[in-house]
Write a structure and sequence with these properties.
By secondary structure, the chain is of the alpha/beta class. It has two domains: 220 residues, Spore Coat Polysaccharide Biosynthesis Protein SpsA, Chain A; 70 residues. The protein is elongated and about 90 Å long. 29% of the residues are buried.
Length: 322
């Protein structure tokens, strides 16, 4: 069957935005999105049933109060309130799974509007050309610090080496059609990493490059600790190669120890006194470190298996305003 073309694809768009303590950023975010959505509706690019869906991820500030008031004042905006904070990926999933019953395609982005909303035009055009998924990809990282740029590039390369399917320089700014959303709904992982799961779906995909801007207000919701947690989640959720690396490291350490043992035996046979306590200490530290790291990695996978077997729901929706 041929991919649907622009003449028969639905045009109801839901822009899905997770929000956590975003009361400072929301006013400007809403202003820009209202202008953009009204522009797209007025020129017939999307239908007038399109919406902006704001997901409150258990915020401790006035975020939900503002979303509720915004909905009452403007039918363009709707909201979903989670029962408690479940993290960015689960909040995004809650929005996508709620929106999939109401729209033809979605575009997800962050509430700080660092993602260029004008790139939506090209995403929509590619959707109408038959794409089921379109990734928003940063064209450069010139605005990042050297540390952030180096660690990000190293992480993408590491994940690719370990067998994870991931789009380079892509975060969560993406277009997904109803078909892609239905496919995503079949994934039931507790340990969720959407950036790695979405590329597994297949279908026709494309990318849109854009310049990432500065955060419009408030503080980043991804400090270094959360970035490291997300990186670890990505590696252990998508690949078992770290487990194989443990075996190889253990085999290499064993081989090194056997070589040293042979050297020591030969030295003793030719009458050379054995004074290798430093070498012995080094070997003990090496093996001890490998054992501890191995236990940690295996424990991480075992912990994930434990959580998956419980089949706990990733989120609960407290209420929806639409």
């Amino acid at each position: 069957m041929d991919t649907l073309n622009s003449s028969n694809r639905g045009s109801t768009l839901y822009v899905v935005i997770p929000c956590y303590n975003e009361e400072e950023a929301l006013p400007e975010t809403v202003k820009r999105l209202r202008e953009k959505m009204n522009e797209l509706i007025s020129d017939g690019t999307i239908s007038d049933s399109s919406r902006v869906m704001l997901i409150d991820d258990g915020s401790a500030d006035r975020t939900w109060e503002m979303i509720n008031a915004l909905h009452n004042a403007d039918r363009l905006f709707c909201g979903v309130k989670l029962s408690r904070n479940r993290g960015h990926q689960n909040a995004l999933l809650a929005g996508l799974m709620t929106a999939r019953f109401r729209c033809d395609f979605t575009i997800s982005m962050d509430a700080d509007l660092q993602d260029d909303i004008d790139a939506m035009d090209e995403m929509i055009a590619k959707y109408k050309d038959g794409c089921e998924i379109v990734y928003g990809v940063r064209s450069s990282r010139e605005n990042d610090s050297f540390f952030k740029r180096a660690t990000a590039e190293g992480y993408y390369k590491l994940l690719s080496t370990l067998g994870g399917e991931i789009v380079y320089n892509h975060a969560d700014y993406r277009m997904m059609s109803k078909t892609a959303l239905e496919a995503l709904s079949n994934y039931g992982e507790v340990n969720l990493f959407l950036r790695g799961i979405v590329p597994m779906l297949g279908y026709k995909t494309d990318v849109v490059e854009y310049e990432r801007g500065e955060r419009i207000a408030g503080e980043s919701k991804y400090p270094l600790k959360k970035m490291l947690d997300l990186a670890e989640e990505g590696v252990t959720s998508l690949s078992v190669k770290p487990l194989r690396a443990i075996f190889r490291a253990g085999a290499a350490a064993l081989l090194a120890c056997l070589v040293l043992l042979i050297v020591f035996i030969v030295q003793s046979a030719v009458g050379i006194a054995f004074t290798g306590w430093k070498t012995l200490l080094l070997v003990m530290l090496l093996l001890g470190g490998l054992i501890l790291i191995s236990i940690g990695i295996v424990g991480e996978y075992a912990g994930k298996i434990y959580l998956e077997t419980k089949h706990r729901p990733p989120y609960f929706i407290e209420c929806i305003v639409e």
